[in-house]
Design goal:
InterPro entries: C12orf66-like_central_sf (IPR038060), KICS_2 (IPR018544). It holds the Pfam family C12orf66_like. The protein is mainly alpha-helical. It has a single domain (about 20-150, about 165-205), classed as Hyaluronidase domain-like (Orthogonal Bundle). Helices cover about 70% and strands about 5% of the residues. It has helices at about 1-10, 20-60, 65-80, 90-115, 120-140, 170-185, 190-195, 200-205, and strands at about 150-155, 155-160. A two-stranded antiparallel sheet has the order 1-2. Helix 4 (about 90-115) packs antiparallel against helix 5 (about 120-140) and helix 5 (about 120-140) runs antiparallel to helix 6 (about 170-185). The protein starts with a helix and ends in a 9-residue tail after the last helix. The relative contact order is 0.07.
């Protein structure tokens, strides 16, 4: 209903009268147009919140997840909402929203490829996830923060320091990528071992968030 009202305003707010009234009408028309596009962004964000809540509930149940279905849901969210906001004034919102969705999609696909022992495809998905996360991180404004701020409970982890310049969702997704790298290392240890010496491989794997092999 809100979107229909914005579209109605955009249709009927045509410039007329003197220069001042014409300028005002054009401004109102622009605002109506941008507001209509922002409604797509808000709905897309709400869908992503629902998606993360679904991930959280599935994880808490500790049951088998159908990652293919999760990827399909995520791709559907992008398809339904990405084309709705494209005005230059909201392009930054679109870029960040796109990077968030694409990063998560690549990581879910990486989980699928790792579980199916597909070394090449898993490598490519992890590389793409890493690239998208880095690009997303470069667009997050770094704020000055005070040191020694106590940690607080976060939705996306056990604790989150207020001094972190990144939003909790970004930090959580970066940790997820790290855990996938750890899983990748243990699944394809034999393949990786043929491409380097054992000491160097163990040293690199020990830097992962979860040193599964040495543990």
């Amino acid at each position: 209903m809100l979107l229909q009202e914005f579209q109605r305003m955009e249709t009927f707010l045509l410039p007329h009268g003197d220069r001042e009234r014409s300028s005002s009408a054009e401004t109102d028309k622009l605002l109506a147009h941008i507001s209509g596009q922002l409604s797509f962004f808000v709905r897309g964000r709400l869908k992503m919140i629902e998606f993360f809540e679904q991930l959280s509930s599935l994880g808490s149940l500790k049951q088998w997840m159908n990652f293919e279905d999760l990827v399909m849901i995520l791709e559907e969210i992008v398809k339904d909402h990405m084309k709705g906001f494209h005005h230059p004034l909201v392009v930054s919102l679109k870029t960040v929203f796109c990077l968030e969705c694409e990063s998560l999609c690549h990581m879910l696909n990486a989980q699928i490829k790792i579980s199916s022992w597909n070394f090449l495809q898993a490598t490519m998905e992890l590389y793409q996830a890493h690239a998208k996360l880095n690009e997303w991180g470069s667009k997050i404004p770094i704020k000055e923060v005070a040191l020694h701020i106590p940690q607080v409970k976060s939705t996306f982890g056990r604790s989150s320091s207020k001094s972190s310049p990144y939003p909790p969702i970004y930090t959580w997704m970066y940790k997820l990528k790290g855990h996938l790298l750890s899983k990748f290392g243990i699944y394809f240890y034999g393949v990786l071992g043929k491409q380097t010496i054992p000491i160097e491989l163990k040293a690199n794997l020990s830097k992962a968030p979860e040193d599964i092999f040495n543990r």
